[in-house]
Amino acid sequence: xxxxxxxxxxxxxxxxxxxxxxxxxxxxxxxxxxxxxxxxxxxxxxxxxxxxxxxxxxxxxxxxxxxxxxxxxxxxxxxxxxxxxxxxxxxxxxxxxxxxxxxxxxxxxxxxxxxxxxxxxxxxxxxxxxxxxxxxxxxxxxxxxxxxxxxxxxxxxxxxxxxxxxxxxxxxxxxxxxxxxxxxxxxxxxxxxxxxxxxxxxxxxxxxxxxxxxxxxxxxxxxxxxxxxxxxxxxxxxxxxxxxxxxxxxxxxxxxxxxxxxxxxxxxxxxxxxxxxxxxxxxxxxxxxxxxxxxxxxxxxxxxxxxxxxxxxxxxxxxxxxxxxxxxxxxxxxxxxxxxxxxxxxxxxxxxxxxxxxxxxxxxxxxxxxxxxxxxxxxxxxxxxxxxxxxxxxxxxxxxxxxxxxxxxxxxxxxxxxxxxxxxxxxxxxxxxxxxxxxxxxxxxxxxxx
Length: 450
Ligand SMILES: Cc1cc2nc3c(=O)[nH]c(=O)nc-3n(C[C@H](O)[C@H](O)[C@H](O)COP(=O)(O)OP(=O)(O)OC[C@H]3O[C@@H](n4cnc5c(N)ncnc54)[C@H](O)[C@@H]3O)c2cc1C
Ligand SMILES: NC(=O)c1ccc[n+]([C@@H]2O[C@H](COP(=O)([O-])OP(=O)(O)OC[C@H]3O[C@@H](n4cnc5c(N)ncnc54)[C@H](O)[C@@H]3O)[C@@H](O)[C@H]2O)c1
Known about the structure:
Layout: E1 3-10, H1 14-25, E2 30-34, H2 40-45, H3 47-65, H4 76-86, H5 93-101, E3 105-108, E4 111-115, E5 119-123, E6 126-135, E7 139-141, E8 154-155, H6 157-161, E9 169-173, H7 177-188, E10 192-196, H8 208-220, E11 224-226, E12 231-237, E13 240-245, E14 250-253, E15 255-258, E16 262-264, E17 290-292, E18 295-297, H9 308-322, E19 336-338, E20 343-348, H10 351-356, E21 361-367, H11 368-371, H12 374-378, E22 385-391, E23 396-404, H13 407-420, H14 424-428, H15 440-447
Parallel strand pairs: 1-2, 1-6, 2-3, 6-18, 8-15, 9-10, 9-15, 10-11
Antiparallel strand pairs: 4-5, 5-6, 7-16, 12-13, 13-14, 17-18, 19-20, 20-23, 21-22, 22-23
Flavin-adenine dinucleotide binds at residues 10-16, 33-36, 40-42, 46-47, 50-51, 110-111, 136-139, 157, 161, 178, 265, 268-269, 299-301, 306-309, 311, 339.
InterPro entries: FAD/NAD-bd_sf, FAD/NAD-binding_dom, FAD/NAD-linked_Rdtase_dimer_sf, Pyr_nuc-diS_OxRdtase, Pyr_nucl-diS_OxRdtase_dimer
GO molecular function: oxidoreductase activity
Enzyme class: oxidoreductase
């Protein structure tokens, strides 16, 4: 006999949690299914541990850059212990209890689809039936086709974020968000890091200037940054894990960390068996986050934008639609922050992306140390650059980036301007608090040759 629910949520990372919580609060009978830990990749092996580990190192470096302070010594056992607290010692029993106490049914196991009209999901011996099912199963690290990879000491984000003992040497493959954050973390806790990026630029979805500035900041931490370098073979040599690069050179470490992107976790769901097609990029959804009648998807598995804030946003969109509303998702102005020191933040389009969309982009970049007081009051060796992209025809901001302290906070001014279509002339008339990094927007938009 099938167990009947109003909705079943599969995968309890941030996307699934938001959808489930809003449905439960609205009085729906909800079953949630999670095969690992409620909180998902984000809570245990991604956002939370990585940001927790980076922060003390940023604070130590920040103290060394502030006038009259000495650099405090990072205490790895102390950092590790707080990381373990933040990832709940990989124990979600309180979360399971929390959902049960709110009236939800919680199933621990792998879900797969076995029926349609209504949807039927099997978890172990249970068959859960519902008119609405939300797929929120996230992504798993993608593995580049490098011969011999299985022979070396291979890490993904999971080993990196839960590391107990810092290796002496690491090779990081991939130079975007995961590679940059984890590379800087490892370098700052005393590991000798080589970072291998296949294209000409780090952060290759961003403006090329962001890539250059990122390479500069990583080199400042002693990281051996190798761009235009693609590993073609991996092998062991004694205790060394060796990557042979396409030009015949080698990158050698005790571990090799894969930071080469993600692929959607779809295979175990057996969606094909119920007539739902999936793509390599994920489970395709419409603007209401619907994949088929009564079948919804949120978060990384949709392939829209692999961020927790997007997963949470989509969770809210889906809950509203299941509850009878008609809410569409709108992704203009989603911020993208890499929590390096200094922070690397971007939003909207790059100039190249704007051109691809048929716009006529105009760009400007400013050195914040040249025109602002804040970088100088903040630290003795001031840093910071901001770039803006505007559309000549509409005279609106369509993109922005910043590589500067606290950029992950103040990028939201640009995010809001882009999302709301605020004109460049209005921004030029803006009044920003003195002395802040945000004043940089005034400098940058004044530089635009519109
Ligand atoms: C190292 C790292 C750092 C990151 N830092 C940030 C950051 O600072 N900010 C940010 O916005 N994003 C960050 N991200 C991205 C962020 O982690 C993801 O965008 C976010 O986790 C997506 O949430 P989700 O709910 O889609 O999926 P997930 O968090 O992946 O959760 C999916 C859940 O589904 C479960 N599941 C999968 N298949 C099944 C099944 N068949 N049955 C039952 N359960 C299943 C999984 O066990 C998992 O718990 C980071 C990623 C990495 C790798
Ligand atoms: N702070 C944050 O918000 C944050 C932090 C970490 C991760 N994330 C998200 O998680 C997702 C995964 O991050 P990621 O950095 O693993 O993936 P990514 O897809 O963003 O970047 C992967 C990088 O690896 C490079 N690469 C791929 N194959 C390679 C190879 N064989 N050799 C050398 N380089 C190779 C690519 O050129 C690319 O720059 C991203 O979508 C990211 O947005 C977000």
